[in-house]
Amino acid sequence: MFTYHLPAKIIFGQPVIDALHATLHELEARRVLLVSDSGLAGLGLVQHIGDSLASAEREIVIFARVQSNPTTDDVDAALSLAREYEIQAIVALGGGSVIDVGKATAMLLANGHSYADYQWGGRPINSHSIPLLAIPTTAGTGSEMSKVAVIIDPQKPFKKGVLSPHMFAHTAILDPELTRSLPPGLTAATGVDALTHALEAYIGQRANPYTDMLALNALEIIWRALPRAVTRGDDMESRSQMMLAAAWAGTAMDHAGLGLIHSLSGPLTSALHLHHGLTNAILLPHVMRFNLPAISAQRRMRLQQLFGLSSEFLPQALARFVQNLGLPQNLADVANIAAVTDWQQIIVDTLRMAMTPNNPRPVTPDAVADLLRVLFDTPPSPEKQHVTD
């Protein structure tokens, strides 16, 4: 038994400017908030798109200050602009962080109140968000296909998403050209993020025949296309395949859920200020080794076939895949262990994450502690740390 619901319109392969003009015309939206980040603003892409939209006699307001790990401060600032200019539609141009801020802002414009009311107060979302046009500039997060926004509240530094069927984007515009200049490291990290979405959706407890179809196709494409996209950034065939696979993986993730890779990645990225996709890439083979005994023989065999493996141990194959992409193998290579002062809180937060119960194998505090020891090559001795409230 399962339910599948995806109201978002998907425009794939059409130049982003053309798709934007056509969609905003259909919506009769004259006042538009363009949400992005400083990196894309620095490349001139934000201004280019803003000028093009303004040329059609629209009023374009730009907010390009979204952080890599967005907070409620980002949402509040975007929301203030949107209310001041009586915005009718939002265009979110960027990675998952930007799109999540766009989702949160669009929801609050339609429903009112503060983000904390929904994130911590359990307030129901009763009205559909104002139209959001999501334009990913990476092939990884899948946020353009999901109904969740993950925003950090600085007063409660724990990654807790707000989700509702009312929060789907109105339109997802997937233009692979926007990923052409993505650097190899970011291409690799975001691509492995998409791979983990598909993998965890496929092996998770809420997997179903519909999400299996999306997840397996995404895994097959990413396994083949991501190495080419990393080493040959101007190979638009692999770029196009990755953008499509990321969308499929994002849909599978949204409907079937995630697991321990993401539930452990959340607290670690917050504590160590790491890129989400990079952290997932490091966790991937280790968590797969932990989960393997709980994955059915049929699903293990399907993954082996999909990746073209014969006798190679699946976690080893995933480790080799990540290494060949030029990504680090353990967190000690990219993070300062001393930056984490409370390892027990990392364990507690991992167990609190909404994705943890969906993991194929039950997750215990000892299991998380063991994974942390392996990841850092140094025992953090979490049992000796104090648990904060």
Q: Would you kindly provide a written description of the structure presented here, covering whatever features stand out?
A:
- The protein has 389 residues and is of the alpha/beta class.
- The chain has 2 domains: 9-178, Rossmann fold; 182-384, Dehydroquinate synthase-like, alpha domain (Up-down Bundle).
- Helix content is 51%, strand content 11%.
- The chain contains 15 helices and 8 strands.
- The strands form 2 sheets. It has a 6-stranded parallel sheet with strand order 1-8-5-4-2-3, sandwiched between helices. Strands 6-7 form a two-stranded antiparallel sheet.
- It is globular.
Mean of residue pLDDT?
A: 93
Unreliable spans? 379-389
Tally of distinct domains: 2
Assign the structural class, choosing from mainly alpha, mainly beta, alpha/beta, alpha+beta, or little secondary structure.
Answer: alpha/beta
CATH superfamily caption of the largest domain? Dehydroquinate synthase-like - alpha domain
Strand order of the largest sheet: 1-8-5-4-2-3
Number of helical segments?
A: 15
How many strand units? Answer: 8
Span from first to last CA?
38 Å
Concise structural overview:
This protein has 389 residues and is of the alpha/beta class. It has helices at 16-27, 38-42, 45-54, 72-84, 96-111, 115-119, 184-203, 209-231, 236-256, 260-272, 276-291, 297-306, 314-324, 343-352, 365-376; strands at residues 9-12, 31-35, 59-63, 89-94, 132-136, 148-153, 156-163, 171-174.
